[in-house]
């Protein structure tokens, strides 16, 4: 996962809140029944958006785990590995599919970045509490105080 301080899963209890921070969302011009969606907005955390788009370019290649990364992947929680592999397969397939349809590669990368943000949010929500190693000592210390 990217090491940019995005937003705590506890603060962003819903996907729209997370999207509101990273802003990989489309602009919208709506009146009554008419809904018109535009390009991706440039509001929000520009650094996070840039890192997401840079990471999205990796999905041009077939899904696999490199030899050097296998030990890091094995050390991750099981649920995080499952979500990450699902993301890897889906995003690689989607990148190729959108490219074959004739979309510009920059548009494809931005679309993949938007979906990648959703997968990152899912991992943070599912594994966020398990993955913080300092949570257990704090809980034990709190129980001693009582």
Count helical runs. Answer: 6
Ranges where pLDDT stays below 50 over 5 or more residues in a row are 135-146
Structural class: mainly alpha
**Whole-Å distance between the termini?**
36 Å
Number of domains: 1
Question: What do you see in this structure?
Answer:
This protein has a two-stranded antiparallel sheet. A hairpin with a 2-residue loop joins strand 1 and strand 2 (34-40). By secondary structure, it is mainly alpha-helical. It has helices at residues 15-22, 46-56, 70-75, 78-100, 105-131, 135-145; strands spanning 26-31, 34-40. It contains 6 helices and 2 strands. The protein has one domain (15-128). The radius of gyration is 18 Å and the shape is globular.
Write the layout of secondary structure elements.
Layout: H1 15-22, E1 26-31, E2 34-40, H2 46-56, H3 70-75, H4 78-100, H5 105-131, H6 135-145
Antiparallel strand pairs: 1-2
Annotation keywords:
about 150 residues; 2 strands; two-stranded antiparallel ribbon; single chain; 6 helices; mainly alpha
Short description:
By secondary structure, this protein is mainly alpha-helical. It has helices at 15-22, 46-56, 70-75, 78-100, 105-131, 135-145; strands at residues 26-31, 34-40.
């Amino acid at each position: 996962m990217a090491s940019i301080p995005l937003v705590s899963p506890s603060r962003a209890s819903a996907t729209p809140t997370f999207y509101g921070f990273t802003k990989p969302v489309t602009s919208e011009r709506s009146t009554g029944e008419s809904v018109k969606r535009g390009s991706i907005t440039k509001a929000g955390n520009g650094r996070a958006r840039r890192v997401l788009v840079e990471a999205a370019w990796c999905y041009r290649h077939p899904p696999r785990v490199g030899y050097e990364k296998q030990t890091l992947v094995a050390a991750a929680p099981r649920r995080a590995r499952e979500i990450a592999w699902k993301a890897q397969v889906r995003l690689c397939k989607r990148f190729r599919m959108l490219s074959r349809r004739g979309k510009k590669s920059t548009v494809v990368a931005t679309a993949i970045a938007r979906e990648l943000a959703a997968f990152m949010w899912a991992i943070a929500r599912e594994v966020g509490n398990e993955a913080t190693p300092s949570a257990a000592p704090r809980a034990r210390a709190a129980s001693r105080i009582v």
